[in-house]
Amino acid sequence: MAVTINWMIPRLMPGDPIRTLIGRAALRAEAADKVAEYFARIYGLDQPAWRQYLSFWTSLFRGDLGTSIYLSPKPVTQVIRDSIPFDLGLLIPAIVCSWIVGNKFGAFAARRKRLDGIALPIWYVFTATPYMWLAILLAYVFGVVLKIFPIAGAYSFAISPSFSVGFILNYLRHWFLPFLSLFIVQLGGWAIGMRNMIIYELEADYSRYMEALGAPRKLIRKYAFRNAMLPQITGLALQLGVIVAGAVGTQVVFSYPGIGYLLLQAVMNNDYFLIQGCFLFIVIGVLIANFVIDVIYVIVDPRVRHGMGGETA
Amino acid sequence: MKKNEFLFFALKNTRMRIGLGIVLFFLAVMIVGPFLTDYDPNEYTGPAFARPSGDHWLGTTFFGQDVFTQVVYGLRATFIVGAVGGGLATLIGLFVGFIAGYRGGIVDEVLNMLTNIVTVIPTLALLIIIAAYLPYRGVVAQSVIIGCIAWPWTARAVRAQTFSLKSREFVDLARMSGMSSMKIITQEIAPNMLSYLFMALILQFGGAILAAATLDFIGLGPSEGISLGLMMQNAVLWSAIPLGMWWWALPPGMIIAAIVSALYFMNTGLDEVFNPKLREM
C-alpha cells in the first residue's frame, strides 16, 4: 500500500500547481508587461499547459527542477541541495529525541497519580503551543534577555562552513534553540499518546492476568510498554507531515536556512519553481521517512499486521 | 434526565471547567473587545515602539498600531477558522467515515485509499501550495482549505466505530424494519457515538486554529484584515525579538496556545464525563 501511495502522490500533486501557474502567467500577459513576457518566455511560462506539464516531467526525470526566479541564476535543485543538510541536522535529532524521551516519560507517568496530575496538563500545553510561538519565546528569553544563544542563522555570518572545531561549535550553538523548540512541542504529544496507551494496555486482559499471577509491577509495565510502542511507531509516521510543517515555522523564526525558510522566501517572492521544488522535496522526504518507519515496524512487530493501515489516533 | 447527568458531570469536572472558562473568556474578549478600543486594527495610532500603558493596553507595534486592537480583531479570525475549518473537517470526516464504515466493500476500499493519500501528504506543505496560488485569500477561504485537508483522522476513527456499531442487534433490527441507510446512519449509529463526535469536533477546532496560525505565520494568511498568526509574522519580520518588543511578539502566540490547550483540557474533561471508567481519577 505504501508503495502505491509512493507512486501516486508525486504523480497527482505537481499537476495542480502547474495548472494554476498558467493562470498567473496569463494575468501577467494581460498586464502587457514586456519584461514579464520576456521572463515568461525564458521560464517557459508562455507555452500551453500540457507542454509545460510534459516538460516539467521530462526535466524532473533528468533531476532538473527549473531555475529559481528569486535566486535567479541558481537552479532549484542546487538551492534545495544547499539547504537540505541543515534540515536533516535539525529535524532528525529533534524527532528521534522527542519520540524516545516522550515515550519513556509518558510511560513512566501513566498510572502514577500525582505525577500524572502534574505532568498531563503541562504536556497538553506543550502540544497546543504553535511551533513558531515557542520559537519566539525561546528566542526572546535565551537570545535577547539572557543573551546565551544566537537567534538567527545556522552559523555566524563571519565564518564559512567548514569542518573545523570552531565552526562545529558555532553551528551547535545556533542549532540548540531551534532544536529545543521542536523538541518540546513534540514531546508533549508523544508523552500523552504513550500515557494513554499504557493505561489502555494495563487494563488489557493479559496485564490483569499477570497481576493475578502475582507478577511484579515492573514486569507488567515492561510488557505494556512494548505493546504500546507499536501504535506510537505508526503515530510517528502519521505525524511526520505535521512535524515538517511545524519546522517551517521554527526555521522562519530563527532564519535557519532549511527548506522551511526557503519555502517562505519562495512564497514571498512568488517563485513558483522554488515552491514546487520545495514541496516536491518535502513530499519525497516524508514518503521516504514513512517507508523507513514501515520497515522499522516490520522489524519491531513480529506479527506484522497489515490490513487497517494505521491506528485510530 | 440523562442529558442533565452529563451536564452535571461536565460542570463538576475541573479540567472541563478550566478549559471552558478560558475559551469563554477569549470569546468574550472577542465580542466585547472592539467596543473597548477606539482604533482600527491596522490604523497607525500613535507612538511606535510604545510599551504597554493605559493608552495602549498591550503597547504598539513597530509602526504604532495598537497591539490590543489587533489581538481583539485577530481573535475573530481565529474563532472563525476554528469553527468553519474544524466544523468542515469534522463533517467531511463523518461523511467519509460513515459511508466507508457502513457500506464496506469496494466503497470502503476507495474511500480508505483516499484517506490514506490525504494522510501521507504533508498537510501544511499542501496548504502552502494551495494558498500560494489563490489570488485572493480570505479567512473563510483559508478555513475551507484547512477543513478539506484535516479530515482523515476523523474519518478513520468514525469508520472504525461505525464498523463495530453496524453489527449490533439494534442496527440489524432497523435494517430489517426497512429503514433507509441514510436514516440508519443518522438515527441509529450517529447518536451512539455522539460523545465521540463532539470530542472530534473540539480537536478539529483546535487543529484548525493551529494550522491557520502556521499558515498566517509563513505569509499565507488573509490578504486583508488581521489575525493572530499574521501578528506573529509581522513581529518576526520586523525584528520584534531582537528589539525586545515582547508585548508585540508574545501575546498572539500565547493566546493561541491558551485557547488550544483549553480545548484539549475540555476534551480530556469530556472524556472523563462520557467514560465513567476514567471518572474517578
How does this model look, in words?
The complex is a heterodimer of chains A (313) and B (281). By secondary structure, chain A is mainly α. Chain A is 76% helix and 0% strand. Chain A has twelve helices and no strands. Chain B is mainly alpha-helical and 281 residues long. Chain B has helices at residues 2-12, 14-36, 67-103, 105-120, 123-133, 139-149, 152-166, 169-176, 181-189, 194-220, 228-237, 246-249, 251-274, 276-279. In chain B, helix 3 runs parallel beside helix 7 (152-166) and helix 5 (123-133) runs antiparallel to helix 6 (139-149). At the A-B interface, helix 1, helix 2, helix 6, helix 7 and helix 10 of A face helix 4, helix 5, helix 7, helix 10 and helix 11 of B.
Structure described in brief:
The complex is a heterodimer of chains A (313) and B (281). In chain A, 76% of the residues lie in helices and 0% in strands. Chain A has 313 residues and is mainly α.
Helix fraction of chain B, binned, reads over 70%
Count of DSSP helices of chain A?
Answer: 12
Structural class given helices, strands, pairing of chain B? mainly alpha
Helix residue percentage of chain A: over 70%
Q: In terms of per-residue confidence, which ranges of chain B show pLDDT below 50 for 5 or more consecutive residues?
A: none
| Estimated share of beta-strand residues of chain B | under 5%
What is the overall number of helices of chain B? 14
Calculate the mean pLDDT score of chain A and round it: 68
Alpha-carbon distance between the two ends of chain B: 25 Å
The geometry of chain B reads as elongated
- Element string of chain B (H = helix, E = strand): HHHHHHHHHHHHHH
Radius of gyration of chain B: 22 Å
First-residue to last-residue Cα separation of chain A: 20 Å
Order of helix and strand elements from N to C terminus of chain A: HHHHHHHHHHHH
Main pleated-sheet profile of chain A:
none
- Described by its quaternary structure, the protein is heterodimer
Please report the total strand number of chain A as a whole number. Answer: 0
